[in-house]
Protein backbone atom coordinates (compact mmCIF):
# COMPACT_ATOMS: atom_id res chain seq x y z
CA UNK A 1 0.00 0.00 0.00
CA UNK A 2 2.79 2.41 0.95
CA UNK A 3 4.69 1.52 -2.23
CA UNK A 4 1.63 2.26 -4.34
CA UNK A 5 1.18 5.67 -2.69
CA UNK A 6 4.82 6.50 -3.31
CA UNK A 7 4.44 5.55 -6.98
CA UNK A 8 1.32 7.71 -7.33
CA UNK A 9 3.07 10.68 -5.66
CA UNK A 10 6.08 10.23 -7.94
CA UNK A 11 3.82 10.10 -11.01
CA UNK A 12 2.02 13.28 -9.96
CA UNK A 13 5.35 15.07 -9.43
CA UNK A 14 6.52 14.00 -12.86
CA UNK A 15 3.25 15.17 -14.39
CA UNK A 16 3.65 18.61 -12.76
CA UNK A 17 7.24 18.83 -13.95
CA UNK A 18 6.21 17.87 -17.48
CA UNK A 19 3.51 20.55 -17.50
CA UNK A 20 6.08 23.06 -16.30
CA UNK A 21 8.52 22.00 -19.03
CA UNK A 22 5.79 22.25 -21.65
CA UNK A 23 4.88 25.76 -20.53
CA UNK A 24 8.54 26.77 -20.64
CA UNK A 25 8.87 25.39 -24.18
CA UNK A 26 5.77 27.31 -25.28
CA UNK A 27 7.14 30.52 -23.77
CA UNK A 28 10.47 30.01 -25.49
CA UNK A 29 8.71 29.41 -28.81
CA UNK A 30 6.60 32.57 -28.52
CA UNK A 31 7.86 35.18 -30.98
CA UNK A 32 5.65 38.26 -30.92
CA UNK A 33 7.01 39.38 -34.30
CA UNK A 34 5.20 36.39 -35.81
CA UNK A 35 1.81 37.54 -34.47
CA UNK A 36 -0.12 39.44 -37.18
CA UNK A 37 -0.65 43.13 -36.40
CA UNK A 38 -4.44 42.90 -36.08
CA UNK A 39 -4.19 39.86 -33.84
CA UNK A 40 -1.58 41.62 -31.69
CA UNK A 41 -3.87 44.62 -31.14
CA UNK A 42 -6.84 42.30 -30.61
CA UNK A 43 -5.03 40.32 -27.91
CA UNK A 44 -3.13 43.11 -26.16
CA UNK A 45 -4.95 46.30 -27.28
CA UNK A 46 -1.65 48.09 -27.99
CA UNK A 47 0.13 48.38 -31.32
CA UNK A 48 3.60 46.87 -31.55
CA UNK A 49 5.15 50.35 -31.45
CA UNK A 50 3.15 51.36 -28.40
CA UNK A 51 4.03 48.07 -26.71
CA UNK A 52 7.74 48.86 -27.23
CA UNK A 53 7.20 52.30 -25.70
CA UNK A 54 5.46 50.73 -22.71
CA UNK A 55 8.32 48.26 -22.26
CA UNK A 56 10.83 51.10 -22.23
CA UNK A 57 8.81 52.78 -19.48
CA UNK A 58 8.18 49.88 -17.12
CA UNK A 59 10.65 47.03 -17.77
CA UNK A 60 13.19 48.80 -15.47
CA UNK A 61 10.49 48.79 -12.76
CA UNK A 62 9.83 45.04 -12.88
CA UNK A 63 11.63 42.59 -10.57
CA UNK A 64 14.69 41.04 -12.27
CA UNK A 65 14.59 37.41 -13.36
CA UNK A 66 15.31 35.30 -10.30
CA UNK A 67 16.61 32.31 -12.22
CA UNK A 68 17.64 31.20 -15.69
CA UNK A 69 14.18 29.95 -16.61
CA UNK A 70 12.34 32.94 -15.13
CA UNK A 71 9.68 34.82 -17.07
CA UNK A 72 10.99 37.49 -19.44
CA UNK A 73 9.78 41.03 -18.57
CA UNK A 74 8.18 41.51 -22.01
CA UNK A 75 6.18 38.31 -21.55
CA UNK A 76 5.03 39.51 -18.12
CA UNK A 77 3.74 42.70 -19.73
CA UNK A 78 1.94 40.79 -22.49
CA UNK A 79 0.36 38.54 -19.88
CA UNK A 80 -0.95 41.52 -17.91
CA UNK A 81 -2.24 43.27 -21.05
CA UNK A 82 -4.08 40.12 -22.05
CA UNK A 83 -5.73 39.91 -18.64
CA UNK A 84 -6.71 43.62 -18.64
CA UNK A 85 -8.21 43.16 -22.12
CA UNK A 86 -10.15 39.97 -21.35
CA UNK A 87 -10.90 40.24 -17.66
CA UNK A 88 -10.11 36.60 -16.97
CA UNK A 89 -7.29 34.09 -16.93
CA UNK A 90 -8.78 32.37 -19.96
CA UNK A 91 -7.25 32.93 -23.39
CA UNK A 92 -3.53 32.64 -22.96
CA UNK A 93 -0.68 34.78 -24.19
CA UNK A 94 -0.21 34.19 -27.90
CA UNK A 95 -3.41 32.08 -27.95
CA UNK A 96 -1.38 28.90 -27.27
CA UNK A 97 -3.15 25.67 -26.32
CA UNK A 98 -3.53 25.28 -22.55
CA UNK A 99 -1.51 28.45 -21.98
CA UNK A 100 2.22 28.83 -21.38
CA UNK A 101 1.72 29.83 -17.73
CA UNK A 102 -0.02 28.51 -14.68
CA UNK A 103 -2.75 30.73 -13.26
CA UNK A 104 -0.60 31.54 -10.22
CA UNK A 105 2.17 32.73 -12.54
CA UNK A 106 -0.27 34.87 -14.51
CA UNK A 107 -1.48 36.43 -11.25
CA UNK A 108 2.08 37.20 -10.18
CA UNK A 109 2.85 38.81 -13.56
CA UNK A 110 -0.33 40.86 -13.29
CA UNK A 111 0.58 42.14 -9.83
CA UNK A 112 4.13 43.07 -10.88
CA UNK A 113 3.07 44.91 -14.05
CA UNK A 114 0.19 46.64 -12.24
CA UNK A 115 2.57 47.86 -9.55
CA UNK A 116 4.94 49.20 -12.22
CA UNK A 117 2.12 51.07 -13.98
CA UNK A 118 1.20 52.63 -10.62
CA UNK A 119 4.68 54.07 -10.07
CA UNK A 120 4.20 57.79 -9.26
CA UNK A 121 6.26 59.02 -12.21
CA UNK A 122 4.33 56.76 -14.62
CA UNK A 123 0.99 58.08 -13.33
CA UNK A 124 2.23 61.69 -13.55
CA UNK A 125 3.45 61.14 -17.10
CA UNK A 126 0.21 59.72 -18.46
CA UNK A 127 -2.61 61.11 -16.25
CA UNK A 128 -2.28 64.82 -15.69
CA UNK A 129 -4.82 67.52 -14.89
CA UNK A 130 -3.96 70.89 -16.52
CA UNK A 131 -1.80 72.81 -14.08
CA UNK A 132 -1.43 76.25 -15.67
CA UNK A 133 -3.54 78.73 -17.60
CA UNK A 134 -2.08 77.80 -20.99
CA UNK A 135 -2.87 74.11 -20.48
CA UNK A 136 -6.39 74.93 -19.31
CA UNK A 137 -6.95 77.25 -22.28
CA UNK A 138 -6.02 74.48 -24.72
CA UNK A 139 -8.64 72.17 -23.21
CA UNK A 140 -11.23 74.96 -23.05
CA UNK A 141 -10.68 75.77 -26.71
CA UNK A 142 -11.15 72.16 -27.78
CA UNK A 143 -14.42 71.87 -25.86
CA UNK A 144 -15.60 75.19 -27.31
CA UNK A 145 -14.65 74.24 -30.88
CA UNK A 146 -16.53 70.94 -30.61
CA UNK A 147 -19.62 72.04 -28.68
CA UNK A 148 -19.76 75.82 -28.35
CA UNK A 149 -19.67 75.74 -24.55
CA UNK A 150 -16.99 78.05 -23.10
CA UNK A 151 -14.59 77.65 -20.17
CA UNK A 152 -14.98 73.87 -19.79
CA UNK A 153 -11.84 72.06 -18.57
CA UNK A 154 -13.40 68.65 -18.09
CA UNK A 155 -16.39 66.39 -17.53
CA UNK A 156 -16.71 64.37 -14.33
CA UNK A 157 -18.58 61.26 -13.26
CA UNK A 158 -18.15 58.01 -11.36
CA UNK A 159 -18.40 54.42 -12.55
CA UNK A 160 -18.53 51.19 -10.56
CA UNK A 161 -15.99 48.41 -11.10
CA UNK A 162 -17.09 45.11 -9.55
CA UNK A 163 -14.84 43.29 -7.09
CA UNK A 164 -15.19 40.14 -5.01
CA UNK A 165 -16.44 40.53 -1.46
CA UNK A 166 -13.59 42.04 0.59
CA UNK A 167 -12.44 40.30 3.74
CA UNK A 168 -12.34 43.61 5.66
CA UNK A 169 -14.76 46.57 5.81
CA UNK A 170 -17.13 44.80 3.46
CA UNK A 171 -19.85 47.40 4.10
CA UNK A 172 -17.76 50.14 2.45
CA UNK A 173 -17.85 48.34 -0.89
CA UNK A 174 -21.45 47.05 -0.98
CA UNK A 175 -23.33 49.42 -3.30
CA UNK A 176 -27.03 50.15 -3.77
CA UNK A 177 -27.21 47.64 -6.65
CA UNK A 178 -26.24 44.95 -4.11
CA UNK A 179 -22.78 44.00 -5.34
CA UNK A 180 -19.30 44.94 -4.18
CA UNK A 181 -17.45 47.57 -6.17
CA UNK A 182 -14.94 50.37 -6.40
CA UNK A 183 -16.67 53.69 -7.15
CA UNK A 184 -14.18 55.25 -9.55
CA UNK A 185 -14.22 59.00 -10.18
CA UNK A 186 -12.86 60.14 -13.55
CA UNK A 187 -12.38 63.57 -15.14
CA UNK A 188 -11.83 63.65 -18.91
CA UNK A 189 -11.17 66.20 -21.64
CA UNK A 190 -12.90 66.52 -25.02
CA UNK A 191 -10.55 63.93 -26.59
CA UNK A 192 -11.60 61.28 -24.01
CA UNK A 193 -8.23 61.56 -22.27
CA UNK A 194 -8.43 60.91 -18.54
CA UNK A 195 -6.94 63.88 -16.69
CA UNK A 196 -7.72 62.70 -13.16
CA UNK A 197 -8.86 59.42 -11.59
CA UNK A 198 -9.59 58.29 -8.05
CA UNK A 199 -10.13 54.56 -7.47
CA UNK A 200 -9.74 54.55 -3.69
CA UNK A 201 -13.40 54.58 -2.59
CA UNK A 202 -15.80 51.71 -2.11
CA UNK A 203 -19.11 51.34 -3.90
CA UNK A 204 -21.07 52.54 -0.85
CA UNK A 205 -19.51 56.02 -1.19
CA UNK A 206 -21.58 58.67 -2.99
CA UNK A 207 -20.16 60.51 -5.99
CA UNK A 208 -20.56 63.91 -4.30
CA UNK A 209 -18.48 62.81 -1.29
CA UNK A 210 -15.61 61.62 -3.50
CA UNK A 211 -15.62 65.00 -5.26
CA UNK A 212 -15.68 66.92 -1.97
CA UNK A 213 -12.51 65.09 -0.91
CA UNK A 214 -10.79 65.51 -4.29
CA UNK A 215 -7.69 67.69 -4.53
CA UNK A 216 -8.84 68.98 -7.93
CA UNK A 217 -11.80 70.69 -6.24
CA UNK A 218 -9.45 72.66 -4.02
CA UNK A 219 -7.26 73.43 -7.03
CA UNK A 220 -10.17 74.88 -9.04
CA UNK A 221 -11.52 76.86 -6.09
CA UNK A 222 -8.07 78.40 -5.65
CA UNK A 223 -7.90 79.78 -9.18
CA UNK A 224 -8.14 83.58 -9.31
CA UNK A 225 -9.44 85.75 -12.17
CA UNK A 226 -10.18 82.78 -14.42
CA UNK A 227 -13.49 81.24 -15.42
CA UNK A 228 -13.23 77.45 -15.27
CA UNK A 229 -15.99 74.82 -15.29
CA UNK A 230 -16.31 71.11 -14.79
CA UNK A 231 -19.54 69.55 -16.03
CA UNK A 232 -21.33 67.05 -13.81
CA UNK A 233 -24.77 65.49 -13.44
CA UNK A 234 -27.20 66.32 -10.65
CA UNK A 235 -25.32 63.97 -8.33
CA UNK A 236 -22.87 66.85 -7.87
CA UNK A 237 -23.62 70.06 -6.00
CA UNK A 238 -23.83 73.18 -8.17
CA UNK A 239 -20.81 75.40 -7.55
CA UNK A 240 -18.96 78.22 -9.29
CA UNK A 241 -16.63 75.64 -10.85
CA UNK A 242 -19.17 72.79 -11.18
CA UNK A 243 -21.94 73.28 -13.72
CA UNK A 244 -24.89 70.91 -13.29
CA UNK A 245 -28.29 70.71 -15.06
CA UNK A 246 -31.15 73.06 -14.14
CA UNK A 247 -33.91 71.14 -12.37
CA UNK A 248 -37.32 71.09 -14.08
CA UNK A 249 -36.22 73.33 -16.95
CA UNK A 250 -38.83 74.04 -19.62
CA UNK A 251 -37.95 72.74 -23.07
CA UNK A 252 -36.84 75.48 -25.51
CA UNK A 253 -36.40 77.95 -22.65
CA UNK A 254 -32.88 79.37 -22.04
CA UNK A 255 -32.49 76.88 -19.19
CA UNK A 256 -33.78 74.04 -21.35
CA UNK A 257 -31.32 74.90 -24.13
CA UNK A 258 -28.51 75.06 -21.58
CA UNK A 259 -29.51 71.62 -20.24
CA UNK A 260 -29.49 70.16 -23.75
CA UNK A 261 -26.00 71.50 -24.44
CA UNK A 262 -24.67 70.61 -20.98
CA UNK A 263 -25.86 67.03 -21.38
CA UNK A 264 -24.44 66.80 -24.91
CA UNK A 265 -21.02 67.89 -23.72
CA UNK A 266 -21.24 65.75 -20.59
CA UNK A 267 -21.73 62.67 -22.77
CA UNK A 268 -17.95 62.93 -23.24
CA UNK A 269 -17.41 61.27 -19.88
CA UNK A 270 -19.88 58.50 -20.75
CA UNK A 271 -17.97 57.85 -23.97
CA UNK A 272 -14.71 57.84 -22.02
CA UNK A 273 -16.03 55.11 -19.71
CA UNK A 274 -17.30 53.20 -22.73
CA UNK A 275 -13.92 53.28 -24.47
CA UNK A 276 -12.02 52.54 -21.24
CA UNK A 277 -14.15 49.49 -20.42
CA UNK A 278 -14.51 48.40 -24.03
CA UNK A 279 -10.74 48.20 -24.36
CA UNK A 280 -9.96 46.89 -20.87
CA UNK A 281 -12.87 44.55 -20.17
CA UNK A 282 -11.65 43.49 -16.76
CA UNK A 283 -13.34 46.76 -15.64
CA UNK A 284 -16.82 45.87 -16.86
CA UNK A 285 -19.29 45.73 -13.99
CA UNK A 286 -20.51 42.35 -15.27
CA UNK A 287 -17.03 40.97 -14.49
CA UNK A 288 -15.39 40.84 -11.06
CA UNK A 289 -11.84 41.68 -10.12
CA UNK A 290 -10.80 38.84 -7.82
CA UNK A 291 -8.44 40.97 -5.78
CA UNK A 292 -8.55 43.00 -2.60
CA UNK A 293 -9.80 46.61 -2.98
CA UNK A 294 -6.30 48.10 -2.92
CA UNK A 295 -5.06 45.85 -5.74
CA UNK A 296 -8.31 46.33 -7.68
CA UNK A 297 -7.83 50.10 -7.43
CA UNK A 298 -4.31 49.75 -8.82
CA UNK A 299 -5.61 47.66 -11.73
CA UNK A 300 -8.10 50.44 -12.50
CA UNK A 301 -5.31 53.05 -12.48
CA UNK A 302 -3.14 50.83 -14.68
CA UNK A 303 -5.95 50.54 -17.22
CA UNK A 304 -6.41 54.34 -17.17
CA UNK A 305 -2.71 54.81 -17.95
CA UNK A 306 -2.99 52.37 -20.86
CA UNK A 307 -6.24 54.03 -22.00
CA UNK A 308 -4.50 57.38 -22.35
CA UNK A 309 -1.58 55.82 -24.19
CA UNK A 310 -3.98 54.27 -26.70
CA UNK A 311 -6.02 57.48 -27.12
CA UNK A 312 -2.89 59.52 -27.82
CA UNK A 313 -1.66 56.90 -30.28
CA UNK A 314 -5.02 56.84 -32.07
CA UNK A 315 -5.59 53.10 -31.60
CA UNK A 316 -9.16 52.06 -32.28
CA UNK A 317 -11.12 50.49 -29.45
CA UNK A 318 -13.17 47.30 -29.85
CA UNK A 319 -16.80 48.24 -29.37
CA UNK A 320 -19.02 46.75 -26.72
CA UNK A 321 -21.97 44.77 -27.98
CA UNK A 322 -25.47 46.08 -27.28
CA UNK A 323 -25.85 43.29 -24.72
CA UNK A 324 -22.64 44.39 -22.98
CA UNK A 325 -23.78 48.05 -23.03
CA UNK A 326 -27.12 47.07 -21.50
CA UNK A 327 -25.45 44.94 -18.84
CA UNK A 328 -23.10 47.80 -17.95
CA UNK A 329 -25.95 50.32 -17.71
CA UNK A 330 -27.99 47.94 -15.55
CA UNK A 331 -25.14 47.39 -13.10
CA UNK A 332 -24.25 51.07 -12.67
CA UNK A 333 -25.62 52.77 -9.54
CA UNK A 334 -27.89 55.78 -10.26
CA UNK A 335 -26.78 59.08 -8.77
CA UNK A 336 -28.45 60.69 -5.78
CA UNK A 337 -29.13 64.42 -5.97
CA UNK A 338 -26.44 66.18 -3.98
CA UNK A 339 -27.23 68.27 -0.93
CA UNK A 340 -25.87 71.80 -1.01
CA UNK A 341 -24.93 74.60 1.36
CA UNK A 342 -26.68 77.91 0.74
CA UNK A 343 -23.80 80.43 0.18
CA UNK A 344 -21.87 78.11 -2.14
CA UNK A 345 -25.09 77.13 -3.93
CA UNK A 346 -26.02 80.78 -4.48
CA UNK A 347 -22.58 81.49 -5.96
CA UNK A 348 -23.01 78.47 -8.22
CA UNK A 349 -26.44 79.69 -9.37
CA UNK A 350 -25.01 83.12 -10.21
CA UNK A 351 -22.24 81.50 -12.25
CA UNK A 352 -24.66 79.20 -14.07
CA UNK A 353 -27.10 82.05 -14.78
CA UNK A 354 -24.24 84.09 -16.24
CA UNK A 355 -23.29 81.14 -18.45
CA UNK A 356 -26.91 80.70 -19.62
CA UNK A 357 -27.18 84.40 -20.44
CA UNK A 358 -23.94 84.28 -22.43
CA UNK A 359 -25.16 81.26 -24.40
CA UNK A 360 -28.41 83.11 -25.19
CA UNK A 361 -26.53 86.20 -26.40
CA UNK A 362 -24.39 84.03 -28.69
CA UNK A 363 -27.31 82.13 -30.28
Automatic annotation (TrEMBL):
GO terms for cellular component: nucleus. GO terms for molecular function: hydrolase activity; metal ion binding; nuclease activity. Its cofactor is a divalent metal cation. It is found in: Nucleus. Keywords: Hydrolase, Metal-binding, Nuclease, Nucleus. Pfam families: DDE_Tnp_4. InterPro entries: HARBI1-like, HARBI1_dom. Residues 156-308 form the DDE Tnp4 domain. Its main location: nucleus. PANTHER family: NUCLEASE HARBI1-RELATED, PTHR22930. Belongs to the HARBI1 family. This is DDE Tnp4 domain-containing protein. It comes from Parnassius mnemosyne (clouded apollo).
Amino acid sequence: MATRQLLIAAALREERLERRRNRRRLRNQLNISNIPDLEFVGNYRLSRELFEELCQDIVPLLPPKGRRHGIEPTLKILTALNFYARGSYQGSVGQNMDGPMAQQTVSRCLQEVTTALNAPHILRKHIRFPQNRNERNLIKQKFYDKYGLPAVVGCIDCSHVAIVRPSEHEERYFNRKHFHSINTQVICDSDLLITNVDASYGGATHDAYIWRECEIRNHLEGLQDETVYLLGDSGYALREHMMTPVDNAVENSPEGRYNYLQKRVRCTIERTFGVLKGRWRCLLAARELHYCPETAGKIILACCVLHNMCIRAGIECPELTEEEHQSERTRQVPFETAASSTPALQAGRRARNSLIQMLERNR
